[in-house]
Amino acid sequence: MSRFFSSKYAGLIPYVPGEQPRSQEFIKLNTNESPFPPSSRALRAAAEAARRLNLYSDPECRALNAKLAEVYHLAPEEVLCTNGSDEILNFAFMAFCDAGHPAAFPNVTYGFYKVLAALNGVPCEEIPLREDFSVNVSDYVGLNKTIFIANPNAPTGLALPLADVERLVRGNPGSVVVVDEAYVDFGGESALPLIHKYDNLLVTMTFSKSRSMAGARLGFGAACKELIADLNAIKYATNPYNVNGMTMAAGIISAMPGIGELSPLYLACVTAAIAGGSTVCSHFNDSGFWLVKSLVGMDEKTTLKTWTIMETLVGGVGFLVALVISFFA
Ligand SMILES: Cc1ncc(COP(=O)(O)O)c(C=O)c1O
């Protein structure tokens, strides 16, 4: 640390990103990236957009916002695209937390929440999980703090049913509830439909996992237009051109509808991940490990969503199918 480093950051313990080994001899599990390449159409769109690198990207992300609005049945003013979902999480800490509005999140959950709280000088309460690692929603009702819930949670992979998420949002009418759905495509129910019912709900999503675009850095948030306007105020005060043109172009192609109207590539990737998960879990169970049973809500398959890469690699057939489809998609 230099002698110039602001004392307000003296106690900051930065997030340690998952290691990206240069060698290809490992099966890398630590950052939950997809092993599948992005669709070749997305790559072509990004290459075409690269021809306009001399220009700033569209600060309003109009085309991508419109696409996401169409896919998720939202108005464009209810969407904000960011540089990964980490950025919208940071914006949420900046916009909705302060000494009078501390943050609250589970212990254990995504480690970045604690770092973002410290970065923004926000006091935070870490609420222990139950013994079985599930979130006890009653601990959060009437909390009057800005709540951050990863659903499904990381690294447990356990998901709260939508009714529980709604109880949590309804139970904190004076506070913003942020539902981080980075892994929702692998199981769990999205809280997106609730944003039209509650003005205190922000749902965040990412292109880094099921959409195979971790390196492009693209995330987005959806909420009522007033919350999105607050987040936009923070965005324009920090990084107006936060999403680059190549990422935007690839994102428009890869903005898939949610479960229900799946594209072939997306379906193959997610299915391979879930199928692989079952295989991995049975191997671990046979070896005497105790695994958290995380249900995807559709059937009784045991999945370990936070181990997506291993799951996917073991889902061999699905892996090949997804590779072939990604070539044509
Ligand atoms: C629960 C959760 N939320 C958010 C993120 C951030 O994802 P990104 O910034 O790549 O969109 C991650 C990344 O691993 C995560 O695990």
Write the topology of this structure.
Elements: H1 40-50, H2 62-72, E1 79-82, H3 84-96, E2 103-107, H4 112-119, E3 124-128, E4 146-150, H5 162-170, E5 177-180, E6 201-206, E7 219-222, H6 225-238, H7 245-254, H8 264-286, H9 308-314, H10 316-328
Parallel strand pairs: 2-3, 2-4, 4-5, 5-6
Antiparallel strand pairs: 1-7, 6-7
The structure holds pyridoxal-5'-phosphate.
Explain how this protein is built.
By secondary structure, the chain is α/β, with parallel strands linked by helices. Helices cover 36% and strands 10% of the residues. Strands 1-7-6-5-4-2-3 form a 7-stranded mixed beta sheet, sandwiched between helices. Helix 2 (62-72) packs parallel to helix 7 (245-254) and helix 8 runs antiparallel to helix 10 (316-328). The longest helix has 23 residues, at 264-286. It is globular. The structure holds pyridoxal-5'-phosphate (PLP). Pyridoxal-5'-phosphate (PLP) is lined by residues 32, 84-86, 110, 150, 154, 180, 182, 206, 208, 214, 219.
